Structures are given as C-alpha cells and as structure tokens.
TrEMBL record:
<dbReference type="InterPro" id="IPR052523">
    <property type="entry name" value="Trichothecene_AcTrans"/>
</dbReference>
<dbReference type="GO" id="GO:0016747">
    <property type="term" value="F:acyltransferase activity, transferring groups other than amino-acyl groups"/>
</dbReference>
<feature type="domain" description="N-acetyltransferase">
    <location>
        <begin position="122"/>
        <end position="207"/>
    </location>
</feature>
<dbReference type="InterPro" id="IPR000182">
    <property type="entry name" value="GNAT_dom"/>
</dbReference>
<dbReference type="Pfam" id="PF00583">
    <property type="entry name" value="Acetyltransf_1"/>
</dbReference>
<protein>
    <submittedName>
        <fullName>Puromycin N-acetyltransferase, homolog</fullName>
    </submittedName>
</protein>
<dbReference type="InterPro" id="IPR016181">
    <property type="entry name" value="Acyl_CoA_acyltransferase"/>
</dbReference>
Length: 221
C-alpha cells in the first residue's frame, strides 16, 4: 500500500480482498443490494467474492484510495470513457466471481451496469473522473471518513480542470454529494423496483479547498 502526500492510501493488488470485504459490509443492507439479491440472506454472505471482481477492476484499471491502511472508507475512480477489454475483465474474475451470488443476481447486476452506461451516454458523454464506488465501513460511519477519502481528490480535480460524474440510489447520499459540489442532472427508475438512480455531475470549482496543497496523481496507470 502506498501513502500519498496528502494522507490518502493508493490501494494495490494485495489489497483486493480487504477492499472487497469493506465494500461488501458497507453495501450489505443497501436497497440496491437487497434488490440484486432479491432478499436472499444466504447469498448475501457471498458478496465479498462478487466485490473482489469490482475491487480488482478498480485497482488494476482505475484508481482506488483508502482513508488509511484500516480502510475505514474507500473510493474507486475511473477515467471516462472507460476502455476496458474483455480480456481485462476476465483477468479480474469476470464472469465467475460475478456469478457467485447466482445467475439471477448476475443478470440483474449486468442490467444495472448497462443502465448506468446508458445514463452516462445520454447525460454526460464527455471525459470526466467517474466515482464508481464510495464505501464506509459501518462502524466508522458518521465520523467524517467519507469526506477524508473524497475531498483531497476533488481538490486535485479542480486543479486539473476535470469534472466528475457519479450515480447513487440513496437520497441521503444525494445531499452528501451536493455538499461536495455535485448537482443532480438526471434520474432513472430501475425496472421492476421502486429504486431510482440519481445521476450527479460536479463541475470544476476554483473556490473549492478540499485538501492541502500536496498533489495526488489521478492518472490511470
């Protein structure tokens, strides 16, 4: 694990399993996870394996950061448009890890990913830094760790004149992202559910001071 100049930790391949456990714990009771699992609590125990795929994808082909080695909070970012080949997906565990919670979970998850891709194509088909995942371990919630892992990156995006885009299904999170400068630009309903996906865009803000003057590299390797 590499510590950056401003206190964030750049995650490496050796951190994949730890990152997956943190993300699975953070999203275990999320409405979107409940929808994907269709209430199957037994399969919920397999979520860390599924998240190993997304963790590997973020660490290998995006940028993944943690608030500290304990990973109280983690974030995964991609430069968009994302260009990842089928072979690269397979190298991260696709589709075997995605199927760990069953074929129905896999099918709904793929539909969700396709919907998010269409949202981005329609609402903001321009280069930006995509926030693919923000997770805070349950025991560290409401302690400022989300801000700690996000604000320094947003400050660097402003210095680099880069916009940022994300989707969230949680209305409480919409308000949190607004405090960081994101604005809602669209909303899509997830088929056969009462879940809405909120697309949010953060424009460049020269008045934002989210971190210190030290720089953190956000370039894909």
């Amino acid at each position: 694990m590499i510590q950056s100049d401003n206190g964030l930790y750049r995650l490496e391949k050796t951190d994949i399993k730890h990152l997956a456990r943190v993300a699975a714990e953070a999203f275990r009771d999320d409405p979107l996870t409940v929808y994907l699992l269709q209430g199957d609590t037994q399969k919920a125990k397999r979520l860390p394996i599924v998240f190993e795929y997304y963790a590997a994808l973020g660490i290998k082909y995006g940028q993944a950061y943690a608030s500290s080695p304990d990973m109280e909070a983690v974030s995964i970012w991609f430069d968009t448009p994302v260009r990842i080949s089928l072979w690269q997906l397979i190298s991260c565990g696709f589709p075997l890890k995605n199927l760990w919670c069953g074929f129905n979970y896999f099918q709904r998850d793929m539909q969700l990913n396709n919907l998010c891709d269409k949202m981005r194509d329609q609402l903001y088909p321009f280069s930006n830094k995509y926030l693919a995942l923000l997770a805070v371990a349950p025991k560290y919630r409401m302690q400022g760790f989300a801000s700690k892992v996000i604000r320094p990156i947003l400050a660097e995006l402003d210095r680099s004149n880069v916009t940022s885009y994300l989707e969230t299904q949680n209305l409480q999170n919409v308000n949190m992202y607004r405090r960081w400068g994101y604005e809602e630009i669209g909303q899509f309903n997830l088929p056969l559910s009462n879940i809405s996906l909120h697309a949010m865009l953060r424009k460049i803000r020269k008045d934002y001071h989210g971190g210190n003057s030290s720089s953190i590299s956000l370039q894909a390797e």
